[in-house]
Structures are given as structure tokens and as C-alpha cells.
Amino acid sequence: HALGYVRGILETEANSATDNPLVFPSEELILSGGNFHAQIVSQALDLLAIALADLAAFSERRIERLLNPDLSEGLPAFLARRPGVESGFMIAQVTAVDLLAELRLLAGPASIDSVTTSANQEDHVSMGLAAARKAYRSVQGLERVLAIELMCAAEGIEYRRPLKAGAGVEETWSIVRSYVSRLEGDRMLGPDLETLTDAIGSGALSEVSARYDVRDD
Fold first, then answer.
1. Omega before residue 21 within 30° of 0, cis
2. pLDDT per residue as tens digits for the range 57-68
3. CB burial of residue 133 (10 Å; 0-12, 13-18, 19+)
4. φ, ψ dihedrals at 154, nearest 5°
5. DSSP string across the chain
6. What are the sequence ranges of the domains in the chain?
7. How far, rounded to the nearest angstrom, does the alpha carbon of residue 35 sit from its chain's CA centroid?
8. Is the pLDDT reported for residue 217 higher than 60?
9. Distance, C-alpha 81 to centroid of its chain
10. Of the chain's two ends, which shows fewer C-beta atoms within 10 Å, N or C?
């Protein structure tokens, strides 16, 4: 619902006349107004950053359930081939937590940080550009957290074989595996993370997500 609200605001504003003043030549009329003020856009983008931080928090907690042997119902600690000798995805979760901390900082609102400019002509400034930059960075951070979760989830499925997951999960697993191979032992996960993050950003998983979305909108 938050994402739908933000999209509605942005689409409305993108299709609105925001000049100041508004000029109507056929009527020889000029009307002065505050239509250029982007406060509602700034507030919507602040809301987006908050929603993205929450999504990352949900994702990080799912990562914890996959890696913590007290919660994972039989999966090896940190999904390592040799727990206690190898680290598995331990540091990947640390990365997710660091990203989540940054996302929570980015969730702080820019829209309330008005500073007067232009010799007091613009006495209340929306800080919309700052809100947009924060939202953009939040999207990038969330993509990385989700990539870490997908890497862990794909690995967890390997340990449950020959059992099969649902159709959507299996299709997602296949896509993830087309970008990232199974963890045969400790290796640098940075390249895998970047590859899968780029895939998420390009929409590689969007079709599967849309096809199996069971929400009643």
C-alpha cells in the first residue's frame, strides 16, 4: 500500500502543471500560486525510504532464520559445508545488517529539513532532491539485502533436497542459480552479491514475483 501511494503521488505530480505563475494566453490570464512546491513529493519519497527499510528488516530476519541452527530446523550453521571450520554465509549476514543500519538512517525524513533560500522568496523548501537521493540509495541498499537473502535461501533449498518447494520458489531458485553457483566451500561472496544485485535491479525476478503474487489488490 505504501508503494502504491508513492506511485500515485509521483504519477499525479509528473502529469501536473507545476509552473509558477500559471499562464493562460487564450484568456490573457496569469495566476500566481505555489504549484512548484514539491513538499508532497518529498514526503512521499520519505515514506518510500521508510517502507524500504522495513522490507530490508523483514529480509534480514529471514536470513537469520536460515543461518541460525537454533532456528533453521536442521540446516547447518551459516549454511556452511563444514560448520565450525568454514564461515558459510556468516559475513554475508553481517553485510545485510550493515546495509539495514544504513537504510534506517536513510529513513529519516528530509521533508522536514526546510532551509529558506533565494532571499526569503522560497521561505519553505521541500528538500525534494535530498529525499529523492535518499530513496534512490535505499533502493540500492534493499536490492543488496534481498540478494543476500536469495543467496542464502537458494543454499538452504539445496540442503532440503530431494524435497521440492512450491512452483514459484523453485522457479526463483533456478533463476538465482543461473547467476550464483552453490557454495562448495568458503569463497569471496562479493562478486556473487554484485551479480545477483544487478539481476534484481534489472528485473530478472520481477516476472516470477508478479506471476505468483497472491495479494488481493
1. yes
2. 999 999 999 999
3. middle
4. -60, -40
5. -HHHHHHHHHHHHHTS---SSEEEGGGTEEE---TT--HHHHHHHHHHHHHHHHHHHHHHHHHHHHH-TTTSSSPPGGG-SSBTTB-TTHHHHHHHHHHHHHHHHHTS-STT----BTTTTB-S---HHHHHHHHHHHHHHHHHHHHHHHHHHHHHHHHHTTS---HHHHHHHHHHHHHS---SS----HHHHHHHHHHHHTTTTHHHHHHT-----
6. 49-211
7. 30
8. no
9. 30
10. C
Stretch 186-197: mean pLDDT, rounded?
Answer: 98
List residues bridging with 86 in a β-sheet: 83
The CATH number of the structural domain formed by 49-211 is: 1.20.200.10
Residue 216: pLDDT above 60?
A: no
Is there a contact between 97 and 163 (Cβ–Cβ < 8 Å)? no
Residue showing cell 532571499? 119
Residue 160: all three cell numbers together: 532440503
Which residues, at least 6 apart from 207, have a Cβ–Cβ distance to it below 8 Å? none
Q: How many residues does the chain have?
A: 217
User: DSSP readout, 72-85?
Assistant: SSSPPGGG-SSBTT
Q: Which residues contact 84 (CB under 8 A, 6 or more apart)?
A: 77
pTM (two decimals): 0.90
Write out the three cell numbers for 109.
525524513
